[in-house]
Amino acid sequence: MSNANEKKLAGEAALRYVEDGAIVGVGTGSTVAYFIDALAGMKDRIKGAVSSSEQSTAQLKKHGIEVLDLNAAGPLTIYIDGADECDPFRRLIKGGGAALTREKIVAAAARQFVCIIDSSKRVDVLGRFPLPIEVIPMARSLVSREIVKLGGQPVWRDGVTTDNGNWIIDVHGWRIADPVALEQQLNQLAGVVTVGLFAQRPADVVLVGDQEI
Ligand code: 5RP
């Protein structure tokens, strides 16, 4: 089966986890786009959505799904999002679409995080996909130098500005044996807004195609 078919199946299968009356946390990316299209079929049974990006907001609104501010929505029962990599402990690399900061916030607000991926995203050890880090623009070089000291190869995602007005550094060359420790360490660097490791708060459920793993 193609990756696109697996993404579509995963997006549709995620509906199983959406309860009637829920405010649904919605991630970003091509897999989530399939989820949003599927969610439109039950839009009259949900209260609305909290979105992690301008891209997902536009798609939700196009389907007539109300998009709520997280501050008004309160705690969420469910967050659905894709990932760039997923290890056997449901720890993730995210941020390929540059939406990692809002994704991490909405994930943190949700009781259950359901991650939807195709099988190409599964790895034994995180790090084959370059790790995205969102930084305050003036700290780009400072953070990059610190990453080099930690053995990584930082590459500025030139031309990309996040929805929050920040920049992205993609770190190549790391085999991330302890993602919780690295997430904590990188979070301490001045100028780092968000690290694309979702290890301290991993996914609760991972759907690969329509199969829960
Ligand atoms: C965006 C993300 C996405 O979830 C991740 O890049 C996966 O995208 P796709 O579903 O298109 O493969 O983290 O910041």
UniProtKB/TrEMBL annotation:
Keywords: Isomerase. It comes from the Bacteria. InterPro entries: NagB/RpiA_transferase-like (IPR037171), Ribose5P_isomerase_typA_subgr (IPR020672), Ribose5P_isomerase_type_A (IPR004788). Signal peptide: none annotated. One of its GO terms (molecular function) is ribose-5-phosphate isomerase activity. Pathway: Carbohydrate degradation; pentose phosphate pathway; D-ribose 5-phosphate from D-ribulose 5-phosphate (non-oxidative stage): step 1/1. Its EC number is 5.3.1.6. The active site is at E103 (proton acceptor). Substrate binds at T28, G29, S30, T31, D81, G82, A83, D84, K94, G95, G96, G97, K121. It catalyses: aldehydo-D-ribose 5-phosphate = D-ribulose 5-phosphate. It holds the Pfam family Rib_5-P_isom_A. Belongs to the ribose 5-phosphate isomerase family. Catalyzes the reversible conversion of ribose-5-phosphate to ribulose 5-phosphate. Homodimer. This is Ribose-5-phosphate isomerase A. It comes from Rhodanobacter lycopersici.
